[in-house]
Amino acid sequence: MTDGPPPRATRTRALPRRPAVRLTELGFGGSQGGNLYRATTDEEFAEAVDAAWAAGIRYYDTAPHYGLGLSERRLGAALRARPRDGYVVSTKVGRLLVPSPEQARRRDPEGFDVPATHRRVWDFSRDGVRRSVQESLDRTGLDRLDVVYLHDPDEHWEQAATEAVPALVELREQGVVRAVGVGMNQSAMPARFVRETDVDVVMCAGRYTLLEQGALADLLPAAQERGVGVVVAGVYNSGLLSRERPPDDAVYDYRQAPPELIDRVRRIAAVCETYGVTLPQAALAFVRSHPAVVSTVVGLRGPGQVTETLRRADVDVPTELWSALRTAGLLDAPPPD
Description:
Elements: E1 12-15, E2 18-24, E3 26-29, H1 42-55, E4 59-61, H2 70-79, E5 88-93, E6 95-99, E7 118-122, H3 126-140, E8 145-151, H4 157-174, E9 177-184, H5 188-196, E10 201-205, H6 219-226, E11 229-233, E12 251-252, E13 255-256, H7 259-274, H8 279-288, E14 293-299, H9 303-313, H10 320-327
Parallel strand pairs: 3-4, 3-14, 4-5, 5-8, 8-9, 9-10, 10-11, 11-14
Antiparallel strand pairs: 1-2, 6-7, 12-13
């Protein structure tokens, strides 16, 4: 008797241009560790990392933006006792954290339940990138960063392309960073980064999901052509796809979802149920089917969310579902064969 295939959480895919950097198919998103929307305790976050590690997840994503550095500090502490060559950590540059003691009694205005002890300052300059990387190393306690993404450079193309990417490439050549990337909530500009700069990986949030597939028109074909890996984030579109049936107050792209979109998702869910799978299970299966996708990052707050996400990710979804959704006009395009 032979053992079955390993759980999807433990399977790894290499970045095509940096094959030494291998990401587990399911990645641990650290935004919740920065107290996104509500507080998470140190213990709860550490338990989430422990549960993810025990399940075989070895890719962990964070950013200075998440809780004004709280997520980076917590993630570094949770991983400190693990063998450094046994996991991959990604973080981001573009927002420097500048002390603002005069605001410390207020809460962070950007959605994280933390004191506003710092303010974020956009900076994609060479010096800003190098400073951000060093500060991330200090907060995490790591000796190197496996992947560093430019974080939301939507309004900063020129400086990001001509200063930030070359600065990260220098750090890659020095061994401080192992892979260079860009992370955004759109697909058009990341496709431009893929075509015009020396990036190894793109994190695309919300633009390639079971609900919308805009990245099929630009980012995904460009990534395949140039050998750039794609990490999908926002797979649930801010929560709209995260339940078996979305409630009336479901969130989409960080805002209240419009009724027509909720109705569309409920119709998608009904088709999924006829094939014996739930909406969240189908959402995870759909994105990982594309050959350019190397990992799917899901924000995880505690061990319960880790367990549930692992269960969802390990379900085999019949390929006939995609054709049924397309026939019903609920899917713009099927995943590639």
